[in-house]
Prior knowledge:
Blueprint: H1 8-43, H2 47-66, H3 72-89
Helix pairs in contact: 1-2, 1-3, 2-3
Function: Binds directly to 16S ribosomal RNA.
Keywords: Coiled coil, Ribonucleoprotein, Ribosomal protein, RNA-binding, rRNA-binding
Organism: Fenollaria massiliensis
Amino acid sequence: MRLLANIKSAKKRISVIKNKTLVNKSRKTELKNLIKRFELLVSESKTDEAREVLKVIDKKLKKAEQRNLFHKNKVARKMSRLTHKLNKAV
């Protein structure tokens, strides 16, 4: 369905939102891929590499939290669970 905005500012907001949605979607996808990679490394008992990936995940999750992509509690919960998986594998 296509929105038919009459006001110029409303038309601009539609295009801005569309662009921001694409950017947010790509950021979320990147995080999901990193998490999958981390879990694969943990399952293969490559803890040193997994630890490095976990640092990158932590940095990106906190950046996503600052950009209001995720709630702070969700970020804390995700990091806690991933860290627990790593510690359990060691």
